[in-house]
Amino acid sequence: MRKIFLHSILFLFFSISYSQNEISFVQKDNGKIKISYKYLNSTEEEIAQEITVKNDQTGKTQTIKNIGVSITGKPSHLEINDYNFDGYTDFASFRTDDGMGVYNIYQIFIFNPKTKNFENLEFPTNFNPKCDMFCDVKIDKIKKTLTSSCRGGARTHNDVWKYDQNKKLMLLKTTSY
Fold first, then answer.
1. Rounded to the nearest 10 degrees, how much is the dihedral formed by the CA atoms of 23, 99, 122, 67?
2. What tens digit of pLDDT does each residue of 7-30 get?
3. What distance in Å separates the CA atoms of residue 94 and residue 114, rounded to the nearest whole number?
4. InterPro entries, alphabetically (predicted)?
5. What is the separation of C-alpha 88 from the centre of its chain, rounded to a whole number of angstroms?
6. What is the per-residue pLDDT across 103-134, written as a single tens digit (0 to 9) for each?
7. CA of 105: how far to CAs of 58, 67, 115, 140, in Å?
8. What is the C-alpha to C-alpha distance for residues 44 and 34, in angstroms, rounded to an integer?
9. Could you state, in order of their start, the residue ranges of all structural domains in the chain?
10. pLDDT of residue 48
11. Is 20 helix (H, G, I), strand (E, B) or coil?
12. What is the rounded distance in angstroms from the CA atom of residue 48 to the CA atom of residue 40?
């Protein structure tokens, strides 16, 4: 009985944290950040049009307008993580792809401690990855890598990204199976 209860609580916790459309956290520099989607007509049934970031430390609100949205009406979600391994909390907006719905497409925003704003992590175009965007992103904090996984036909591709000494994202390796 205890195992069933524990599994139920864990399932509830992870299902709630997975589908967040508003998140708050305390940044490494003790600034409280609140991130939320702004919807057309103020209803969550509509497609998120922009992201609002409120920073209690600076008292400023940042509006991010160029977020990727589903053309088929699939909802977007928010996720926090340290995507560039600098100790500051970053966030991502993600949604299920508009095709078969087999992976999540990520748009990652990196915290800039100098400006206290979040900046869009541009997908590097000077490499030849198998995935043409960040998909099903996984973080390896020990190796300090981001892995993007996508499907192409009957194959699954994994692009492993790592930051170089100049804090630029570079393709470390690509595998397909």
1. -50
2. 444 333 443 334 478 999 999 989
3. 26
4. XAC2610_dom (IPR058087)
5. 14
6. 899 999 999 999 999 999 999 888 989 999 99
7. 31, 11, 27, 18
8. 17
9. 22-176
10. 60
11. coil
12. 7
